[in-house]
Amino acid sequence: MLDQDDGEGCRMNAVRGREIDTVIGNLEFDPVALKRKYEQERDKRIVPEGHDQYVPTIEGRFADYGKDPWVSPGFSRAALNDHTEVIVAGGGFGGLLVGARLREAGVTDVRIIDEAGDFGGTWYWNRYPGAMCDIEAHIYMPLLEELNHAPRHRYAYAPEMLELSRKIGERYGLYDKACFQTVITEARWLEDQKQWLIETDRGDRMTANHFVLACGRQSLPKLPGIAGIGDFEGHAFHSSRWDYAYTGGSADDARLTGLRDKRVAVIGTGATAVQIVPEVAKWARELFVFQRTPSAVYIRGQRETPPDYADMSKPGWQKERRENFQKILGAKPQDVDYVADGWTELTVRMKPVLSSRELAARLNRKPTPEEHEFVAEISDYRVMNAIRTRVEEIVKDPSTAEALKPWYRWLCKRPCFHDDYLDAFNRPSVHLVDTGGRGVEQFTRHGIVVDGHEYKVDCAIFATGFEAGISYVRLTGFDVVGREGRRLSEHWRNGVRTLHGITTDNFPNLLLVGGNQHSVAAVNAVHLLDEQATHVAYIIQQAGERRLQAIEPTTEAVDAYTEIIRSAPANKVLVNFYSSCTPGYYNGEGKGAKSEDLFFGNRYGGGAMAFYQMLADWRRENNLEGMALR
Hints:
Low-confidence stretches: 593-600
Number of helices: 23
Distance between the termini: 66 Å
CATH topology of the domain at 83-217 and 468-566 and 604-629: FAD/NAD(P)-binding domain
Number of strands: 21
Largest sheet: 7 strands, mixed
Shape: globular
Radius of gyration: 25 Å
Structural class: alpha/beta
C-alpha cells in the first residue's frame, strides 16, 4: 500500500505528460516535497480550540482592552424618541456609502448609529503608527470622484482615511442626525405600524421605515487566550486601541519617543503587525516580535502621489479603475493595468489558478480537472517561492530569514505588502521570537514565556486582529427580530438565506451591507460596499416612489438564490482549498466551516464582476423581481 507521500507523488506524475510539461516548463523544485512541507507546517499550528483560543475584549475581565481611547469620558445626551426614514447601523465606509447613495437617490432623512465617537469605522479605531490601506488608495477610498479628493499616497495612511470619512459625513449631511457613542441593543419589526423599532443603551426608542445593517465584518478586537495574560504588570493594549499617551507621538506624528527606554513586545505577525513593527522598531530600546505563523510579504511600492497620478478629469474614472483591477484579479485580460501593484502582478503569475481558459488555449483542448489543479499548484508554488526568496534577499540573519518564510498557498492567508517590514529585522534591537506554530506559552508578571524562556518586557502590544467566523448576532451585538417575533439567529440557524446577500424573507424593510455570506469574495472590500450601497439605495428609493409600506423578498426567491449559492462549484473548490490551508480566520482556525460562519464559503460563485453585473441587471429591469410588495 502506498504511503501518503508516494500517493501524492503518483498523483502528480499521473497528471504530468508532455503537454502539461510544455505548459509548466522545467520544474526548479520538487512539488511533492513542497506540498509535504506545507502540510507539516499546517499541522503544527492546528489547535483543538479553533476560534475559542481567543478571548473577546468587549466584555468580561478584558473589557478595558476594547474601550474607546479617542473620546473624552463622561459623554451623555438626552434619550431620543423620534422617527427617521432610514436608520443605518454602522458608521464605517459601508454606512457612509449607504448614506451617500441614499442622499443621491433623493432619500434625505437618514440616521447613522455607531458606538464610535465619529465616522470612519476601521479607520476610526485603527490609528496605530504605520496604519494604511493595502489596496491602492485611488480604488479603495470611497467617493473620490464625488468629493474631488486626490489621495496623497499610493496607499493612504489612516489619518487621511479618517479625514475622508468626516468629509463624506459633512458633504452628505450625515452628521445632522448621527448618533455616536451609542450601542443598539434591540431592533424589532412592528408589523402593525410597518416600522422598525430601534432601542439603544442611551435609552433611545427610535423608529424607522427601513433598517440597514452595515456593521463591519471585523470590528471586535480579540486577544489570544494565553495563560497569565491578566497577571502581566507591564503596560498592554490592543493595536486598534493604540495608547499614544504611553508610546508618545500621535496618529499624525509617529515619533514614538516614549518607547526609547522600553522593551516592547508585539504579539502577532499578521497584516497589522506588518505595519506596526517597522515603526516601533525605530524607537523601542528593544523589540520582541512573537510569531506563530509568518505572513507572506511582497513589495508594496509606497510613495507620494501627485494630483495627476490618476486622470481624475474623466467622468467615471474611479469606477473604471476599480473594474480594471477586479477584472485582472479575475483573470480577464486587460489592455492596460491601471493599478500595477503586487496584487495584479502576482495574479498574472497565478492566472492558471483562476482561469481554465488560458490553460485550454495553451493545451489546445479542454484541460481535465486534475490537470488544472496541478498547473494551479505549480503556479502557486512559484509565486510563494519568489516571496520566500525575497525574505532571503532582505533579512541578513539566516535563521531569522528561515523563520520568516511562509509555507502555505498564496491565498491561504491575507497577503501582505510592505517595503520596510522584513528589513526591520536587520536592526540589532529587533528580535524575532518564532514559536514554531504553537504561539506564546504564558505571561508572567514581567514578561512573556516561549519554550520555557522568559522574555522580560515593559509593554505588550496585541496585534492579534478581530473576531472572525462569528454569527451575525455576535457581530452586531444584538439580534434582529422580524415578523411574528422571528429572530434572525433562528432564521439563519441552518445557514444564511438571502436574496443577493442584501435582503431576507420574513424581515421586511431590512437590508444588509458588508462581506457577509451570499455576497461575493472581493479583495477590494470598498468596491463591494459601494455596489451594495447603490443596490440598497435603489430598493429604498423604489419603495418610496411606489408608496410601499413594506418590501421583502419572497420565500421562493430566497430559496432560489440560496440554492445558487449552495450549489456553486466555486464554493466547493474554496472549501477544499481552505481546508488544506494553515490555520487562520479564513478557515475557522483550521476547524473548517460552520453554517453561521461569515467567512467560509457560501459566496456567489461567479466572481465579483459577475455579482456586480447581476445586481445592476436586476435594477435595470426595474420590476423588483422576487420581492413581495405591500
